[in-house]
Amino acid sequence: MTLPPLILTGGPAAGKSVTARALAQGRPRCAVIDVDDVRQLVVSGGVAPWEGQEGQAQQRLGVINACGLGRNFLASGIEVVVADVLTPQTCALYRRELPGCLIVHMTLDLPDARQRAESREVWLTDDEFRMLHESDTANPPDADHHIQVGTLDLHNQTEMVARLWGAAADDRL
């Protein structure tokens, strides 16, 4: 059974990338596309998505490029998991560019996010971390599922998302 493209979203430290990798490792053929990595391909002149019109334009370009990669993997029979911080606007772009995708929004409280962030390298300033978390909470994307992950360890978080992903494939049969 081939699973639909999966988009994992949430604020900083929600576990998007680690969950994506854990899910992919459990599949026969699966690619992970971390959209932060795609955006960082712009070496000179790259700006963060929250830095004005240029940041928003580069954010959209990152989504379009990630979806192009995703479509190419899918056309070759390789399942796809994408990790990105979605806004309502980029959510609509994903739905247009990766038809049939399943979007799972992972949420957690700011103190839980900060605690999780302590265990890894964070590339955001404290203000950026807080701003992204608050924006994700106040203006969540139109996801298929919203799950609270603050009390879940990686294993339980991955299992919960895997069940949702599998159920989405069953629903499409």
UniProtKB/TrEMBL annotation:
InterPro entries (UniProt xref): P-loop_NTPase (IPR027417)
Name this protein carries in UniProt: AAA domain-containing protein
Taxonomy of the source species: Bacteria, Bacillati, Actinomycetota, Actinomycetes, Propionibacteriales
